[in-house]
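## tool: complex_structure
## caller: assistant
## args:
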Amino acid sequence: MNIITEIKSLEEEILKCMRCGFCQAECPLYQKDLLEPSVARAKIFAISQLINGNFKELDKILNLIEYCLLCKRCANACPSGVKTDLIFIKTKSTLRKVIKLPAYQKIPLSFILKNSFLIRFISPFIAKYKPEPVKRKILDKKEYDFVGLYPGCVANYILTSWKDNTIDFLESQGVRVVPLATDICCGIPALTSGEKDLFKYQIMRIKGEIEKFNVSAIITLCPTCQWAISDLSYSIADISIEKPVYDIMQYIRIKELEGYAKIDEKTTLHVPCHYAEKSLLKSIVKERIQTEWISIVNDGCCGFGGIFSTKFKKDSEELFEPKLKELKEKDIHTVITTCPGCAIQFARHKIKIIHPVELLYV
Amino acid sequence: MQRRTFIKELKNIVGAENLWEKPEEVLCYSYDATPLPPVKPDVVVRPKNEEQIAKIVKLCAQEKTPIIPRGAGTNLSGGTLAVEGGIVMLMTAMNRIITVNRDDLYIIVEAGATTLKVAKEAEKHGLFYPPDPASMNVSTIGGNIMENAGGLRGLKYGVTKDYVLELHLINAHGEPIKAGAKTVKCVSGYNLPAVFTGSEGTLAILTKATLKLIPVPKAKRAMLAIYDNFIKASETVSEIIASHIIPATLEFLDNFTIKAIKEATSARIPDTADALLLIEVDGHPAQVTEEIEIISSICKKYGAEVIIAEDEREKEEIWTARRKALSALARIRPTLILEDVTVPRSRIPSMIRKIDEIKNKFGIMIGTFGHAGDGNLHPTILTDARNEEEMKKVEKAISELFEEAIKLDGTLSGEHGIGIAKLKFLPLEFSRPTIDFMKRLKNSVDPFGIFNPHKLVNYEHNN
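## result:
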């Protein structure tokens, strides 16, 4: 009964949903399946039925919520401002108290979380692109700022060029960088599996690392890590990270850092679902990088979704297919993106992925 | 037939992968966008073509099992609820655009295609499909036709019915029938497209439609008129129409709605605003320039402050306020009841006054906005379905709202339909013989009572 009471605490948020169904237009899974259970409206409705006792099978509700990329597209577009992502994450965490994650999933999960270098094992499965080293001019700005770099596991262990170039780029601009908590996963894989305590533990550790340095801000290379540290830390784990957390491109814009680049082949920009300021990303990338920009029609979610891609492998692939097809048709081989998760999805289909910071120079 | 056998038969028709019957699956088809208690269907099926639909209909006719067709489930009158169970027929797999004919200006689409897809396809060919219900990004064209959906452009461009040329349907015997023709004119037989359009799925299952397209207007201009008194705003509407200018859209927002928008967004609207008119004219560039000036001077004559959008960005800004109206209101209370009473345009001031009176009389929250140009208002009641006391007042208020609309020569519903939500009010608008006429029509066309029973006229098996 405690479980229902706990979920009932979300009732005010749930009641905000007027079931208009507008989330159908945003949901990558609904657009693929054209079935109601895929979309946020249905999941929220089902949770409401759990609260009022009309539906009692907790495991079925959990299954319904698990089939979700947590891409936040519905939350961003909801006319009533329903925080769908928080409803799903919180309900999932509550249900996981009674429907335990099977040991064969939980043990590896907590093991990888604690030994994040292990994610290197996926490295051989993806095509990595090593850009030519960029020679950057050292600008005479004399310790302009001091920031912490939290690269996230993928940029730290697999796409290491993202991390290296960020440090090189920032230091050439007079920004002193200290990499911090590089070996501590942000805990998102735990949270999206419903393991809130594990998530909380990771955030605590990261907070501890951040507090060791007197940095002005934290720079991330992963929009999902950014979401975890700057937002979910507080809204889910009740831990407040005092320092502002910026994605590297946001930081470049805020500090008006210089840096330009040129790509000699057709390129498209993939905007990650979790990217906080999508229009900023579009404008900064297009004004800094000179290339033949091609826009693609299938410009939605790449379908990766972290744990989602392992749990729903087929669906994840199906979401990526139309994009892959269009890239091939339009003969585009280079994709710019700023999310390591999306990067993995593209890279394992042999598409060259570049983070803008790998190219920017003065 | 046993339930098991029935389900097995259905599976044979659509395949196991297109049938859902588990409680957690049918739960997701137990509601639409209407704030009504949910009802679970027995089973959900998703046919892929007309042949499958025909077979399902034959099976259901034999078993007297209700079929509730469903597109996106954005219905606002409970039209997609399985009142006494039955099967929900999901049309989303039949969503192809079959052809766009640029010489004869029409598009042929399957019923499950979204309105947005239709509009975009038309646009790709330099043509225009004007009906734009608020849910058009997700709603299906089949749903739009069966509900005769309206939208913002009703004043100048009409509603869905004005674009229906030809329909393909499956009748109660599981046979394909055709209504209308692909021609602009057609008087062979009854005007069947008009009978089926707005029939709320009670007469046949729609599979395919031919819709009229028109050339895209060459120019557009938008403007905003701000009033310190809503009566002046509604008088402006009358004078614009009386001057024989037909704007593409002519939207009204009341004081309560304006405040809600201001609180929820950063829209720049003066505090003194008691009412807003949002006006867009389109057509030939020279005509647009002339009309916007005439309208602007009429607005000023009635004391409005006028802002004309100079570019695309300013136009967007003006429209943002209107687009945010419903959502801004929705944030205020947990339950939102969106009505769509419609009156002849000249009666709008009386209707708005009455809404104000009702609001005060029952002490409930109502924000009003809507398509002033075509007399279609959206009094939006903000309440809390958990509060029984308040809900009783809301119900009484709605009754009075409907009574007044009818008294003013109006109608219960301009664009949302009767469904089950307004069923009991139908006798307010129509005499017994008129309702009987509709019932007889329903009963003769659907003798087994399988097509969306309980809706619109509430099929009675003993009739």
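## assistant note: The first strand of chain B starts at residue 19 and ends at 20. DSSP finds 16 helices and 18 strands in chain B. Handing back to user.
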